[in-house]
Amino acid sequence: xxxxxxxxxxxxxxxxxxxxxxxxxxxxxxxxxxxxxxxxxxxxxxxxxxxxxxxxxxxxxxxxxxxxxxxxxxxxxxxxxxxxxxxxxxxxxxxxxxxxxxxxxxxxxxxxxxxxxxxxxxxxxxxxxxxxxxxxxxxxxxxxxxxxxxxxxxxxxxxxxxxxxxxxxxxxxxxxxxxxxxxxxxxxxxxxxxxxxxxxxxxxxxxxxxxxxxxxxxxxxxxxxxxxxxxxxxxxxxxxxxxxxxxxxxxxxxxxxxxxxxxxxxxxxxxxxxxxxxxxxxxxxxxxxxxxxxxxxxxxxxxxxxxxxxxxxxxxxxxxxxxxxxxxxxxxxxxxxxxxxxxxxxxxxxxxxxxxxxxxxxxxxxxxxxxxxxxxxxxxxxxxxxxxxxxxxxxxxxxxxxxxxxxxxxxxxxx
Length: 415
Fold this sequence. Notes:
Layout lengths: L19 H8 L10 H4 L1 H11 L5 E5 L8 E7 L2 E7 L5 E5 L14 E3 L3 E2 L6 E2 L5 E3 L16 E7 L2 E5 L8 H11 L7 E11 L3 H7 L6 H4 L1 H6 L9 H18 L6 E4 L5 E7 L29 E6 L3 E5 L4 E10 L2 E11 L10 H26 L14 H14 L3
């Protein structure tokens, strides 16, 4: 028997440009319930996700230290749109289409590398690190090279985080900069080095990952390592114990001048981000197998007793920063039932591998936890794809997934 619908506090209106079928699906969503099966499985809805959500918001691509030198680049793909993010000779990080302006071949086939120049492998047109066309062999003498540079893509770097936007509709990042730079300053996130990188091909719709990473209802059954390390995450500890540790931690952070303010922000354009600092369980100082530090303190942190600083930015960035390393998770949709999940771990720029840190120990915690989440989301997708699936009610502790869905639906109905 289906549960009774809970009235939506604010109806999802708009969407005059949507097909009647999609509009009917949106109208049928019950607030406080997961979505109907087509939202997680249907190619038409997936195409709308790319156009209405992913192309209209800033997307995290990498950290600046991953393209630290002139000519260092990474490639990124959203749907069929391919770009290159490269550091120029002037030190500026730029994004441009990974599409030759001659006959459209991709230029950089590798995920990352260093290029003295960007050379199309098809007919050897040569572009500078700024995207300008430098040479087009065998073209006529009056050929205007200046008119055939690589198409520019919006790109910003804030506190070492590199973002791109695939359209002009993405809102300004000034609020993100103002709210997060002060908190990130002590971590010196612009002075990091890569310790480990791992990429997973996850057989799940991207929204199931977004819902999963916004709740800890599943932590007790799905993440024994996580609930051992983060107090309150298992939701089974005595409330008095959890509250006492939060009070102790906040007093310690306040005495050290560590930022305590959480951020929960959404503007009229739908830009949404969140941050919070929360404590470890007693005996833990970082996200590691035994709770002991695995690398030198980041930046100019005053001590190891600073808990975990966490950032979420819809639709694709999740970050956790314990005192000795920083982990970013980047999600990219690939199909209605598939997405790419990339984890990167960073340590202090001066840390020496094999001396100051062991990459395997740095990556242990989120490798275990992240792979558990990938498996959970793949099982979730497999069940949602069944014709016997019906949307289920969120528990009171699942406010995060409920927020994800409300935010997502508001993006779909925007013109």
